[in-house]
Design goal:
heterodimer; A: mainly alpha; two-stranded antiparallel ribbon; globular; B: mainly alpha; Helix Hairpins; 3 helices; 78% helix; elongated; ND/Mrp_TM (chain A); transmembrane helix (chain A); transmembrane (chain A)
C-alpha cells in the first residue's frame, strides 16, 4: 500500500510536465487531462484512506522511502514520505477540493486561450502541495513549500498582460520569500541542534534541546507560517493575490495553500509544546490577524477582496487554535477542513457571479442577483451560513470548538483570547451578511458600462455549478459529521495529541454566547445594508472604514517602515562608503601623489643641481665615515 | 717646508673648483673647474707621496693625468657639438633630462 504514496504526487506532477511541455497540440485535451490526473490522485487518496480505516493504532502511519537524495557522511537527506492521519486529512482536502476546482475551471476558463497552461499550473500546485504534506522530513517539506510558492506566483500572475496582476504576483512571491527564509533558518537550526531534520527523530527528541533553541526554532517556523498563511505581519500579499483567476483564489488562497502554515505548526507541535514563549507569540499572531482580517473584510467593496479578508481572519482562528497547544491542534485542523469546503464554495460562487456580470467585482454594482442565479445563490448562501457559524452547519461546530478551546486556555489569557474569538465571530457575521445582502438582495444596481453593454446576469454552466453544489454539501454536513461522537478528534488524536484544558465556563454557555454574537452581527449588517437601498458610489465612511479600505494601511506601513527604511539604510551605507572607506583609500593615494609631485621637482634636468646633490651626498658620506671613526 | 701646507693648497684649489662647477653656467668654465679639482687631487697625492716616503701617490697622479687627458678629449667634443646644435655653451640650456 505504501508504494501508492509516491503515485499521489506523481499523477499531478506528470500532468504538469505534459501540459507545460506538450505545446499547442494539447490545447483541445489539456484541461481534460489535467482534471483526470487530479481526480486520479484523489482516487488514490481515497483508496489509501480506506486502507487506513481498516487498520488501527500505529499501523495507520505509512512510510515510503523512495531514494536517498543527498547521502553524505553526517548529512542524510532522503526523499521519503509519511502518510499518517494528519497527512491523510490534507491529502483528501487538497485532492478533493482540487479536483472540484479543476472541473469548475473547465467552464470558468473556457474562453481563455491559455487554458492548457492554466491546468498545467494547477497540477503543479497540487503536486507541490501534496509533497509538502507527505514529506517525512523538513527538507523535503521545504521543497514542497517552495513549489507551492512558485505555483502561486505563476497563477496569481496568470493574466500577466494586466500590470496589476504581474505586480501582485511579484508581491506575493517577495513577501513569501521572507517567510521562506524563516523556514530555512529553522531547518538549519534543527540540523545543528538535533543533527537531522526528519520528523520522527526531531519531534521525539525535543527534550534534549534547550528551551532557548526550541523557542528560536519555533519563532522561525512561525515566521514561515506567517508568510504562507498571510498572517500579520506578512499578510499584505493575500489581498492583491485576488488578481489571479477566481478558481486560483478558491484553491490556493482560500482552501489549501494558505493552510500550509497551520499544517507546519501542527506538525511541529512537539517543538511548540516545549517552547511556551513561541506558543504565546503564535497565539498573539493568530488573535491579531483574526481581528485584522475581519476588519478589512468589513470595508471592502470588491467581493473577492472581502472574501480574502475573511480568509485571513479564519486562518487567524486556526493559527490561534494551533498556538493553544494540545487543546487546540485538532480543532485547528477541523476548522481548516470545514473552512476548505465553505471558503472554496464561497469563492467559486463569487467567480460564478463575476462570470455572469462581465467580470464586475464591485458588490455595490450587484444587487438582487438571487433571481438570476438561483443555484449560485443557494450554494453561496449555504457557504455563508456555514462561515458565520449558523447552528448545525460546518462552521458552527469547528469555530465553536476553537472558541471553547480559547477559553479553556485558562487564566486571564483564556478570557482575553475567548473575548477576541467571540468578537471575531461577531465581525465575521457582520461582513459576510454584508456581502450576502449587497450581492443577492435589494434592487439591481448594475448599469451599462462605457460601451453601452449592460450585463445580463445568468446562471453559470453545469461544470461550474456542480462543484459548487458538492462543496455546499460539505459546508453543510462536514462539521456535524466530524463532531458527532467526536469522530475527528479520535481520528487525529494519535498524531497531534489532545487535552481538554480547564474551561472556566461550560460549553453550553460558550455556544450560547457564540449564537448571540452571531445574531448581533447579522442584525447590525441588516440594519446598515438590508433595510435601506445601498448607494452605488461608496460613501466616504469613517476614519476606520477608510483605513480598512486601504487594508488598514498595511502597504503604507510597509512602504514607510520597510521601503523607506531600507532606502535610508542603503543611503547611509553608501554615504559611509563614499566618505569613510573611499576617503581612506583616496586619501592615501592623494598623499602619495602629492609627495611624489614634490619629489619630482628635484628632477629638474639641470646638471648643476645633480652635481650639488652628488656633492652634498659625498660630503655627508665622508662626514658620516669620519664621525664613525671618531666614535 | 712643511708638506701639510701643500695639502691646504690642494683643498683650497679643490674647493674653488667645486664651487666653480656648481656655480658657473658656461660649460667651458665648468670643464676647466673640473680640471682644477683633478689637479688639486694630484697635488694632494704627490704631497702624500712625499709625506709617506713612497711612490704610490705619484703613480696615481700619473694615472689621473692620463684619465684627465682622455676625459678632456671626450668632454670637449661633447661641448663643441652641444654648442653647434644650440648656439650656446650654457649647461642650464641642456636641461632635457627631466620628467
Amino acid at each position: 500500500m505504501e508504494n501508492l504514496i509516491a503515485l499521489l504526487i506523481a499523477a499531478p506532477l506528470l500532468g504538469a510536465a505534459v501540459l507545460l511541455c506538450g505545446g499547442r497540440r494539447l490545447d483541445r485535451v489539456g484541461h481534460w487531462l489535467g482534471t483526470l490526473l487530479a481526480a486520479a490522485s484523489f482516487v488514490i487518496g481515497v483508496v489509501l484512506f480506506g486502507d487506513m480505516l481498516g487498520k488501527s493504532g500505529e499501523g495507520r502511519s505509512l512510510h515510503q522511502h523512495l531514494f536517498s537524495w543527498i547521502p553524505v557522511e553526517g548529512f542524510q537527506a532522503d526523499v521519503a514520505f509519511q502518510l499518517d492521519q494528519l497527512s491523510m486529512t490534507f491529502v483528501l482536502l487538497i485532492t478533493g477540493v482540487g479536483t472540484l476546482i479543476h472541473i469548475y475551471s473547465i467552464g470558468y476558463m473556457e474562453h481563455d486561450e491559455r487554458r492548457r497552461r492554466f491546468f498545467g499550473y494547477l497540477n503543479l500546485f497540487l503536486a507541490a502541495m501534496l509533497l509538502l504534506v507527505l514529506a517525512d522530513n523538513y527538507l523535503l517539506l521545504y521543497m514542497g513549500w517552495e513549489g507551492v510558492g512558485l505555483a502561486s506566483y505563476l497563477l496569481i500572475g496568470f493574466w500577466q498582460h494586466k500590470p496589476s496582476a504581474a505586480t501582485a504576483a511579484k508581491k506575493a512571491f517577495l513577501v513569501n520569500r521572507v517567510g521562506d527564509m524563516g523556514l530555512s533558518i529553522a531547518i538549519m537550526l534543527m540540523f545543528t541542534t538535533f543533527g537531522t531534520f526528519a520528523f520522527g527523530p526531531v519531534l521525539s527528541s525535543t527534550g534534549d534541546a534547550t528551551e532557548g533553541k526550541l523557542t528560536a526554532i519555533g519563532l522561525m517556523l512561525l515566521l514561515a507560517a506567517c508568510g504562507k498563511s498571510a498572517q500579520v505581519p506578512l499578510q499584505s500579499w493575500l489581498g492583491d493575490a485576488m488578481e489571479g483567476p477566481t478558481p486560483v483564489s478558491a484553491l490556493i488562497h482560500a482552501a489549501t495553500m494558505v493552510t500550509a502554515g497551520v499544517y507546519l505548526i501542527t506538525r511541529s507541535g512537539a517543538i511548540f509544546n516545549a517552547a511556551p514563549d513561541a506558543q504565546l507569540v503564535v497565539v498573539v499572531v493568530g488573535a491579531v490577524t483574526l481581528l485584522f482580517g475581519a476588519i478589512v473584510g468589513c470595508a471592502k467593496d470588491d467581493i473577492k477582496k472581502a472574501l480574502a479578508g475573511s480568509t485571513m481572519s479564519q486562518i487567524g482562528y486556526m493559527i490561534l487554535a494551533a498556538g493553544l497547544g494540545p487543546i487546540g491542534y485538532v480543532f485547528a485542523i477541523m476548522h481548516l477542513v470545514t473552512h476548505g469546503f465553505f471558503k472554496a464554495g464561497l469563492f467559486l460562487g463569487a467567480g460564478s457571479v463575476m462570470h455572469g456580470m462581465n467580470d464586475e467585482v464591485d458588490m455595490r454594482k450587484y444587487g438582487g442577483l438571487r433571481k438570476y442565479m438561483p443555484v449560485t445563490f443557494v450554494t453561496f448562501g449555504l457557504g455563508y451560513l456555514a462561515i458565520i457559524g449558523f447552528p448545525g452547519l460546518s462552521g458552527f461546530f469547528s469555530k465553536d470548538k476553537i472558541i471553547e478551546a480559547a477559553f479553556a486556555k485558562g487564566g486571564t489569557e483564556g478570557w482575553i483570547l475567548g473575548a477576541v474569538t467571540l468578537l471575531g465571530a461577531a465581525i465575521t457575521a457582520f461582513y459576510m451578511t454584508r456581502v450576502m445582502l449587497l450581492t443577492f438582495f435589494g434592487e439591481k444596481r448594475w448599469q451599462p458600462d462605457d460601451n453601452g453593454h449592460e450585463p445580463h446576469p445568468h446562471e453559470s454552466p453545469k461544470s461550474m455549478t456542480i462543484p459548487m453544489v458538492i462543496l455546499a454539501f460539505g459546508s453543510v454536513f462536514a462539521g456535524g459529521f466530524f463532531s458527532i461522537g467526536d469522530r475527528f478528534l479520535h481520528w487525529l488524536e494519535p498524531v497531534t495529541g489532545h487535552s481538554h484544558g480547564n474551561p472556566p465556563v461550560s460549553a453550553t454557555t460558550v455556544t450560547t454566547a457564540t449564537v448571540v454574537v452571531l445574531v448581533i452581527g447579522v442584525a447590525i449588517a441588516w440594519f446598515m445594508y438590508g433595510r435601506k437601498p445601498v448607494p452605488v458610489a461608496a460613501p466616504r465612511g469613517s476614519l476606520l472604514t477608510r483605513a480598512a479600505r486601504r487594508d488598514l494601511l498595511q502597504d503604507d506601513f510597509n512602504h514607510v517602515v520597510l521601503v523607506r527604511g531600507g532606502e535610508h539604510l542603503t543611503r547611509s551605507l553608501v554615504y559611509v562608503d563614499h566618505t569613510l572607506v573611499d576617503g581612506v583609500v583616496n586619501g592615501t593615494a592623494a598623499s602619495f601623489g602629492g609627495l611624489s609631485g614634490r619629489l619630482r621637482k628635484l628632477q629638474n634636468g639641470y646638471a648643476r643641481t645633480y652635481a650639488v646633490s652628488m656633492f652634498g651626498g659625498t660630503a655627508v658620506l665622508i662626514a658620516a665615515t669620519l664621525l664613525m671613526r671618531a666614535v | 717646508m712643511n708638506p701639510v701646507n701643500y695639502l691646504y693648497l690642494a683643498s683650497l684649489l679643490f674647493t674653488i673648483g667645486a664651487a666653480g662647477v656648481l656655480i658657473r653656467r658656461n660649460a667651458i668654465v665648468v670643464f676647466m673647474c673640473i680640471e682644477l679639482m683633478l689637479n688639486a687631487c694630484n697635488l694632494a697625492f704627490v704631497a702624500f707621496s712625499r709625506m709617506h716616503g713612497n711612490l704610490d701617490g705619484q703613480i696615481i697622479a700619473f694615472f689621473t693625468m692620463v684619465v684627465a687627458a682622455a676625459e678632456v678629449v671626450v668632454g670637449l667634443a661633447i661641448i663643441v657639438s652641444l654648442f653647434r646644435s644650440r648656439h650656446s655653451a650654457s649647461v642650464d640650456d641642456a636641461s632635457l633630462m627631466k620628467l
